């Protein structure tokens, strides 16, 4: 199947998947596939979708991203969260930009709204954020909360670092590795996705908050804040196999 776009989706909110799928239809007219990696089953409305791939897994979001990446057939890849909605026409705008560039290493960074906060160009530089800034990271390095990248290059980079548990930290690490590798970031100001979850210590986002604070912080400090910082470009794409299933610990009541 010759898809133009693969959408990688760790997913824990099946009641939102139908609306998510409909939002993709409004955001791109290209031939796309969505790859859902989740412990929950597909809703009946999506079971017959020929462009829907589903994998059952109990891992962290970043492990799910890499499982999906291994199955991606599209020329380009993007990702998101299953409580979000893609905005009309924006995925096509990002694809159009990539098609106009020759470089394998061009990456589109896209604006989002999360919990009513607009993650715009003003906030997209890593060292603008006290909790993640480092003297060893160049001041012009950008965040990559939501992006679009050529699938082959994504795989060459090794995908998302599955040693991080939280989605946000995995894509921050991806952003740094890509820029260490000479990637060219283009910021697309159009809001690509609106997300409804509220970051913090309550609701279904609480396990992700715990993972980021209790687990990922030490790893991030060792990689990017300590004085012996050593730039890393590419990972082993099969790293997801070493990343444990964390569902029992993170969702004890499920």
Notes on the protein architecture:
With 254 residues, this protein is α/β, with parallel strands linked by helices. The chain has one domain (5-228): Alpha-Beta Complex (Spore Coat Polysaccharide Biosynthesis Protein SpsA, Chain A), CATH 3.90.550. The protein has 7 helices and 9 strands; from the N terminus they run βαββαββαβββααβαα. The chain has helices at residues 17-27, 61-71, 90-99, 151-157, 167-180, 206-225, 247-250, and strands spanning 5-10, 32-38, 52-56, 76-79, 84-86, 106-114, 117-119, 147-150, 184-195. Strands 1, 2, 3, 4, 5, 6, 7, 8 and 9 form a 9-stranded mixed sheet that branches. Strand 1, helix 1 (17-27) and strand 2 (32-38) form a beta-alpha-beta unit. Helix 5 packs parallel to helix 6 (206-225). The longest helix has 20 residues, at 206-225. It is globular, with a radius of gyration of 17 Å. The termini are far apart. 40% of the residues are buried.
Write a short abstract of this structure.
By secondary structure, the protein is an alpha/beta fold. It has helices at residues 17-27, 61-71, 90-99, 151-157, 167-180, 206-225, 247-250, and strands at 5-10, 32-38, 52-56, 76-79, 84-86, 106-114, 117-119, 147-150, 184-195.
